Here is the input.
Amino acid sequence: MSSSTPMLKSPILGQVPAHVAIVMDGNGRWAQKQGLARSAGHIQGAAILEKVVEAAIDFGIKRLTLYCFSHENWKRPKEELDALMALLKSYMKEQRPVFMKNKIRLRIIGRRNELPSDVLHEIDETIRLTSANDGLTLALAINYGARQEITDAVKKIVREVSSAIQNDPNDQTKIEALEQAIDEKYISSKLYDPEAPDPDLFIRTGGEQRLSNYLLWQLSYAELWFTNVLWPDFTPETLKEGILAYQKRQRRYGGLNSTDSQKPCDCK
Ligand code: FPP
Here is the structure.
């Protein structure tokens, strides 16, 4: 992320969420409403991304995490899956100059090794090309599921622990030291993108109010905002509406407001 403060074209007064995570729902319904195939909704959903990402930069957002393809989406018809994979591939190629112009750094989260190799190749090429950019970080969740992410993190930890105690598996002191070392920060460091800060604001379009296996660990203290707008109809104005709703929230992280009494309870 940039250390300099860029001049924003359309700044929003007040605290802007640094990290916004979006579930881009409603593509299928948008297409069906117009008598089109579901894949037309995904195409339109990808087409509006450039404007949304540029608006996020304008508003001062530092990181945008978009749910593009869930681990569960493989259950969809082959035709739709093919269309989504083709779209991801063309998006990567077409957006490279836009990413470079806007200093966007691309990241992905999800099970990479289950993606078609040609799609992964274009993604990796874009990640490599944009790696030194210091503007907005665009993280795409592709073949992503939060339960899978936590499962994969646990597997990494088990591997580390078993190699640490390989020579003396009955060494209680070593086992206790490892137990001590495993805290929330350590678990976060085993997630798909250990550098990523937790999202401040979660947005879901399309009228449904659920998390759908998205960033379950990271969203613990995010503010949630739902809109009936179908993703292909999402505009910079809708994003602004979400940010303004966020600004009305009071984030307490389980504590108290600064105006509330800070006197600790002396009850038992
Ligand atoms: C959910 O809508 C959306 C998806 C499963 C895919 C999201 C993908 C895009 C916005 C475009 C692809 C992105 C890139 C970066 C190329 P849905 O199909 O479940 O809609 P419905 O609830 O109306 O059926």
The longest strand covers residues 63-70. Strands lie at 19-23, 63-70, 105-109, 137-144, 201-204, 223-226. The two ends are 46 Å apart (CA to CA).
